[in-house]
Here is the input.
Amino acid sequence: MNTNMAVCIAVIAKENYPLYIRSVPTQNELKFHYTVHTSLDVVEEKISAVGKALGDQRELYLGLLYPTEDYKMFRKLHNSFTDVMCNPFHNPGDTIQSKAFDGIVSGMMVQTA
Amino acid sequence: MAQCVQSVQEFVQDSFVPMVAVLCSEEAERVTRKNNLNFAELLRPFCRLTSEGHIRDPSNQLQVVKNLRICVNNLVTSPTTTSTSLSPAQRQLLSDVVSSCQPQESAVTNVVMAGDYELNFSVTTPWFEAYRENFLQSMPASDHEFLNHYLACLLVVSSTEAVPVEQFLKLSQEQHRIQHSGEYTNPKWFIPNTLKYYVLLHDMCEGDEQRADVVYEDMKQKYGSQGCYLLKMNSRTFSANVDEQIPDPWSQYLHKNNLHNQFPHNPCTSNEMSSSLEGHPLQLDSSMANLHNLSAVHTDLKKGAKDSNSPACAAGSHGACLTLNDHDYIRQFIQEFTFRGLLPHIEKTIRQLNDQLVSRKGLSRSLFTATKKWFGGGKAPEKSISEPKSTCGLLYPPEAPELQIRKMADLCLLVQHYDLAYSCYHTAKKDFLSDQAMLYAAGALEMAAVSAFLQGGASRPYPAHYMDTAIQTYRDVCKNMVLAERCALLSAEILKSQGKYSEAATLLIKMTSEDSDLRSALLLEQAAHCFINMRNPMVRKFAFHMILSGHRFSKAGQRRHALRCYCQAMQVYKERGWSLAEDHINFTIGRQSFTLRQPEEAVTAFRQILINDSRQTAKQQGAFLREYLYVYKSVLGGNEVSLPQLPLPCIHSSATRVYFGHERRLAEGEKQAATHVSLDQEFDQDLSAMWCHLEEQLVASANGGVVPVNFQPTQCCLNSQTDNLRHPLAVVEEPIIVEVTFRNPLKVSLALSSLSLLWRFTVDGSSSSKEMTEETITNEETSAVGVGNMNKYALRNCDLFSPFRNHMDFLLFTDQQTLDLMVRGKQDLNILGPRLNLTKEDKMSVRHGPDRRLNPIITAPMPLMEVFFLQFPTALLCGEIRKAYVEFCNVSGVALCGLRVVSTHAAFFTFGSQATTPLSPTSAENCSPYKTVATPLQRASEATESLVSADDFRQPSGVIEIPIDGSILQPGQSTQLPLWLRGPDQEGVHEINFLFYYESAEKGLKISHRVLRHTVFICASRSLSIQASACRSSVPPHHCLDEKGSSGTLVFIDVENINTNEGGVREFHIVQVSSSSQHWRLHKYINPNKDKECKLGSRERAKLCFRATRCKPSEATSKAVEKYTFSDLSMGNEQIISSTTPCGDFFFRSSSRISSVSKSQGSVPTENRSSDLTDIAKECSELDLNIIVIWKAYVVEDNKQLILEGQLHVALQTIGKEATSLTAKEVPQEMVLLKFKSDLPPPVILPSAEFCQLIKTNLHYPETCTHPFVQESLCLVPVTLTLSNCSLAQVDVIIDLRHKSSSPESLEVHSSFAWVGQSQYKLQLKPKEVLCLTLQACFLQAGVYNLNTPRVFAKPSEQSIMCETSQQTATPALIVISNA
Here is the structure.
């Protein structure tokens, strides 16, 4: 049984464009895109708060944006994202097109079937 | 929240003002109506008091009232009860107010930079302020508060009335009836004892002023001087001073009504209005039964609307009868009324209320002890419990004592005594809360917060939670959205003023609900503004809420506002990869724009969806496309002149290819046209360089060996890789073909039809550049661009007619079609040049160079030549000679000349050296390509010779001038020339490129020349392999009759049939062997078995032996002209004259000859410097004899025997060295192992082999000798040793006859015979000298002896240091000595 149940997972570049975005109930994709985009403001707020508080920015997990987050999930996703970035053929800034990453994300998604 | 015109204090303060009702007599109404205004409207601009008023509070403190505004309304009665929501009519009004207030085009927009976002939007939202103002004004009066209850009533009577006092009485009774009869609930009154103020209106133009004064005096008597007023107005006559400019202060108060007026469906009657409302999307219930409960404000507005509609007065001309003095009178009147009438009245009321409250026990306690707990005491609601009717809890009767404190608080608030107001509200709040009268409590909380805010200063912090509680209570408990909204509007504005944008936004967002789209839209928009105004602007939240707002606006029917919201949000989402969101916004913008009749914008928006790399599904894309096409079509309408741009399909503009000239005819009958350049060929850098090189050669040859500085290679087909910096030159009346590459990025297919190319032609030279856009393009068939694939279309342009310089810009016409929708549009064809990367600026930014592919210059007519080939083979044997024909046609109207050709394989073809009359190919069929003469049999083994100058054949630098008659080809003329081809020496497939060059007979044209390309592929298969070697013959020179010198050389030719195709080629016959050299010639064919032709089957081999002799010196030494001696040795009965075409041509062209030429040329200077040793030696052994072997091959093809002929060349350069026909057969060099140790030093210089050939020796002796050894023991035989100097230098020769004593075995043999006489000679031989020495050999017994023992050493005379070299020993010279 999969405990990580996300409906939408997105990786956003720091210039605010999506590197990767996927959501499971595909009929509601537009809504999720809007939500993700709008939540960037919250992320930005958190980042600026963290920046002030800590000199060491090694902790990339920003904490809960909303009470249904899971740290493990972030770790998993982040590791996979690191793998994608380590791919010498990947051009940083391009959208992510990776089967492995897709697989990780699919595992986190709500099983609709 | 957006910025407002008013300050917050002003806004809040103005939201709560004393209300004054107006009751007019009909006559007074008529007087004011002259100004196109009713009385309330007349007063409105002057309702703000500029001077300070004063009021005494209950503790007798003087309170200053500043900047007070009063609200004057006509008294309108309506029977209905209050409602908790706005009536449909009110909603309609608000909706109209909002929709009529649109941002101006020139409205100030500010640019917000947030992160990397740059947003451009208007900071003010006047529609919101208009909505708010109207909303607050249209608030229905509620029982739980008194703020918009009427405090006073103005009774207005005109002085023209017969008995004004009576009218006053009537009006007063009317007011009393309205207030107290209980008939009307709607105009609510503050206190039972309403202030009545009597106003006598005097029209200066009509009535008697004195009478008015009299009446006024009367009134003063009756009502007291503080309760009445004489207002004089209408001083100006209608017609007088029309041009006098009087400021119109009414316009800003009434202009909204006028705008309202401009709506085509302006409701003039209630029936009309209802019908108009039915069509309004906002209104769900179109039942307009309760039209009568229009609020006072609304009625006013409506009246204004009605009046301005009346044709007598033009809209906007308010106060036409009023002078500036009249304005002052009105202002004075208001001031008088307020300060003398209203304020004292309020002051009195406050006192009364205060006294009542103080008298009530326990109240004073609650007033003055602030320590009382909120809910403490458990005070039961014992008093006057009326049935709690509603969810709001308790409802008090109007005169309930609990309400008195609230009433007092409201009064204090109205006269700006906020301190007292706050404490009253606070007390009231506690009372209401303890009574669980939630509506009242919420009202008290709200107003407590307001008064606390208005109090200002640091005395009390603003209690934001009061507001929150109030809103929550209004909304959730009382279900009164109107009040909740008012509270939220106030609270948000206050929070905004305190910089608490986040809280304001939360508040506003909470207030959105399903019941009113308009309110939700406006509040969401304000929330969005809050987000962007935060210290760290939240751009994305701004955008998102703008979208939500836009959505609600569109639901509310406010299309313009919706469009504006979406457009503002678009700025955030644009070009950041949020394609789904972007598509959604674009789609909405497109739809809204279209319904707002802004189809251009709609088209632009839809275009964006299609251009973007869409992530939508195919179905969605199809829908988008359909919508786009529909909108596009409607935009286009009948306007066919200027076609708009189509977004699809994408043109891959850099892949555009432009082809100048006609499309090639590939073949015409059996004629095969020159391949030239076609669009089917892909561009190849190497090929292009090769053609350019060939063209350079041609141009150089045409210009006397020099390439002009401005030479540019001809480019027929331009693409992205060609040099497009120059304007290409196109010839008038020749077509230009443009190939365009399309891509369909969608997942649905597009059908294109009727594609045509648009162009513009600019005449250069004439002062006004004439531009004509003409459609002269042939159409393509309808074709569908499939899903996601690339299609290429070649669009053919027709001829151009004017021979002037001009520029062309190409556009593309396309019709797009999807199912039933078909639109017509164009796409620009703009080609961006290559990116520049030279300067720093270039590198820093993205700059592109020019690309002039599509801007050709049209030049004067040029000749155009077509070349056809006849009987041109595709396969040849190596060395095979074939005759073909080539036809040159001038298809233009201009004569051409200077025909030349150059090829990558110069040895492949020849046009012949002599002017030969071209035979028609049919008559020459089956004829040998060679020219033959019958040979007399008896001379079969003897060579025929001919001497030919090389210049007759030589063409400089590989360029061949084509010998056509008269060297000019007239228009329409064509000429046919024979062409001989020789199969390449290498087997395999050869790509052979020809470049034909021609120029116009006229000189000085823009295009200096034209070229035509031709590429053929020849498959060469193996025929014969020839190996030749030469060695000195040992025949003494004098044996040959015609031999003068010492040089007799034997030439051996090995011929092998290496053709592997046994079925095809039966056998090869060697027909003739010819030689060609400057110094040597083949002299004789030494045939062991005569009369037998040399035939070679597959894999057979034969060896032929010839004798070569030196040419006659007279021939050889004539160096001025390089002359070649050709000698032919025919083996059959026909002789082929090898010195003529084609044999001679190919000989001179063959690569083997070229190499020998370079060799011989290299050795020429050394002849003079004979001191160089090696050269002498080389010279001596040099042969430089070219052998031409002519063969016939019997080939069976399709059961038909064919005879193919051919020739192979071998260049024999040195004696003893083998040469083969496969000259260029270069075995790839074997890999050499890497050696780390250096090689051993080469052994001491051995006399090189070359020096072994200096002297040729021959021994002449009787072959047998019979000697009677019995009689005589010694047998002496004379032997002649002939020495011939082969070199051109003097040679010292030493001849040693002594036997070598080295080997014991030779001793044994040699002991039997000895040389007698002089045994060592030292001689000097002049160049080419032949010398004979007579020697004596002495034999002791019979036997067979080898006489070849003399050792000959030679060295060039000048060379003193070097030791003599042993000369080549000849073959054994055997002598038989027999005993007699």
Remarks:
- Chain A has a mean pLDDT of 74.
